[in-house]
């Protein structure tokens, strides 16, 4: 009798262990050893979304995080802007070789190289010689008619010959999208990317369900405390009321202002993984999607808002982007050949970096790969 009970206990206990989610176990262990407010993840395998899970807090100590909660994803947003440009190029409204001066409506020339044209391709690939030293929340930053220090917004090398990551370049891109689509930037992205793919999100904070926002927290390593970052979801109603079409666009932050959930970001990622098509909808030609994934800067392996890296998962060259702002960290990376991809978003975690990636994001990506992709 005792033997039978003991065997039953072993069998029951073994089944319980087997039923445990190894991803959940490892990520919870990571969150116990490292400061993390919340973490939302999504995994794509063989081109399909196979796993989504949320861990930790949406609002510290009060509301737990859900997979349907949306985040301001920071610089992954740039790929939505570049995708919009490629759509307009397909419609012959724009060309990657267009002079940005003609597109934006004021001179965009590096004063040290005044005869070298700065092109739209250079803006999208961070090779324009522009920098963010004069700010990037307004297009006045390098407008000679508005900023007496506009010359400081350019580097010392010729356009097209060097690389420097530049947020201003993408806020300028958003204004160009407006002027040549005839639609306000946030409305263009919603109508031409999000809606066709069946995704919920957007750049306009005031048109989204505020109850779904995952609050963002910055972690201070010295005090070992999280601090709420309310600016991440600040209303733009006043600026919109006084909107200047083709110039006020940075209020939506084409460079970093997309708000979307991890699973929906993964569905968007599937579109890029499939070279422009997802859910039966093609929103980009294959050639356009391939061009976005083709590095234009050998130094950084950066294409058009997508870059290649072999430093995130050993033995795999992935395509994607990271983001960081206000304490949030995000990553969206995929392998277009093997048809897998991973999205990880934290609304606040230890800011430590390793090999160019936030450590918490990096470890989470590798846990998901080892448990759900590699087997």
UniProtKB/TrEMBL annotation:
<dbReference type="Pfam" id="PF00144">
    <property type="entry name" value="Beta-lactamase"/>
</dbReference>
<keyword id="KW-0378">Hydrolase</keyword>
<dbReference type="InterPro" id="IPR001466">
    <property type="entry name" value="Beta-lactam-related"/>
</dbReference>
<feature type="signal peptide">
    <location>
        <begin position="1"/>
        <end position="19"/>
    </location>
</feature>
<dbReference type="InterPro" id="IPR050491">
    <property type="entry name" value="AmpC-like"/>
</dbReference>
<feature type="domain" description="Beta-lactamase-related">
    <location>
        <begin position="26"/>
        <end position="352"/>
    </location>
</feature>
<dbReference type="InterPro" id="IPR012338">
    <property type="entry name" value="Beta-lactam/transpept-like"/>
</dbReference>
<keyword id="KW-0732">Signal</keyword>
<dbReference type="GO" id="GO:0016787">
    <property type="term" value="F:hydrolase activity"/>
</dbReference>
<protein>
    <submittedName>
        <fullName>Serine hydrolase domain-containing protein</fullName>
    </submittedName>
</protein>
């Amino acid at each position: 009798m005792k033997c039978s009970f003991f065997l039953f206990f072993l069998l029951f206990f073994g089944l319980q262990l087997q039923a445990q989610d190894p991803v959940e176990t490892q990520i919870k262990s990571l969150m116990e050893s490292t400061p993390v407010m919340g973490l939302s993840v999504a995994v794509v395998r063989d081109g399909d979304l196979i796993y989504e899970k949320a861990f930790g807090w949406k609002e510290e100590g009060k509301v737990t995080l859900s997979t349907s909660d949306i985040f301001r994803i920071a610089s992954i947003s740039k790929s939505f802007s570049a995708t919009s440009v490629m759509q307009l190029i397909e419609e012959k409204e724009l060309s990657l070789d267009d002079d940005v001066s003609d597109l934006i409506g004021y001179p965009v020339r590096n004063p040290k190289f005044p005869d070298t044209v700065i092109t739209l391709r250079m803006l999208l690939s961070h090779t324009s010689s522009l920098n963010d030293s004069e700010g990037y929340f307004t297009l006045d930053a390098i407008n000679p008619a508005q900023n007496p220090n506009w010359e400081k917004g350019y580097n010392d090398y010729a356009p097209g010959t060097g690389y420097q990551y530049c947020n201003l370049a993408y806020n300028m891109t958003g204004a160009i999208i407006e002027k040549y689509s005839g639609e306000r930037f946030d409305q263009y992205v919603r109508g031409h990317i999000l809606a066709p793919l069946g995704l919920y999100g957007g750049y306009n904070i005031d048109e989204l369900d505020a109850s779904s926002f995952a609050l963002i927290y910055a972690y201070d390593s010295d005090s070992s405390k999280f601090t709420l970052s309310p600016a991440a979801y600040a209303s733009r109603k006043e600026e919109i009321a006084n909107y200047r079409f083709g110039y006020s666009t940075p209020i939506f932050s084409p460079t970093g202002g997309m708000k979307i959930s991890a699973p929906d970001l993964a569905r968007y990622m599937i579109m890029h993984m499939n070279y422009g098509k997802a859910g039966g909808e093609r929103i980009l030609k294959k050639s356009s999607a391939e061009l976005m994934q083709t590095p234009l800067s050998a130094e950084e392996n950066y294409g058009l808002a997508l870059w290649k890296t072999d430093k995130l998962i050993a033995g795999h060259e992935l395509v994607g982007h990271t983001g960081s702002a206000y304490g949030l960290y995000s990553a969206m990376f995929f392998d277009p050949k093997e048809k897998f991809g991973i999205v990880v978003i934290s609304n606040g975690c230890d800011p430590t970096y390793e090999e160019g990636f936030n450590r918490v994001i990096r470890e989470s990506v590798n846990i998901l790969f080892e448990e759900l992709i590699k087997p």
